[in-house]
Amino acid sequence: AMITFYCVGGREQAAIILQNLRVFALAESLGAIESLAESPSLMTHASVPDEQRKLLGIDDTLIRLSVGVESCVDLISDLDSALNAALSSVGGK
What we know:
The chain contains 3 helices and 4 strands. The protein is α+β, with helices and mostly antiparallel strands.
C-alpha cells in the first residue's frame, strides 16, 4: 500500500519524522517488499523547479510511505513514534 501525507509544521518536522523511523527505510524507489519512506521534495523531485513542484502539490512537508511485508504492529508503532517526535518539536501533545 502507498500512503502520502503532509506533516504539520515544516521541513524540520518532515526531517524529524524521517529520522525517527526505524522499520521504514529511507529510499528514493518505493517499489520493494520492505517498507520504505521518502521526501519527494528532497529526493525524487529535487531537480524539479520550485514553482512546478508547487503546482504538483509537492512541498517540503510531503512524505510518501510504501508499506511492505513487515508486521502491522511494528509499522504502526514505528510511524506513531516518528509522528510523536515531530509533534513534540512543535509543542504538541
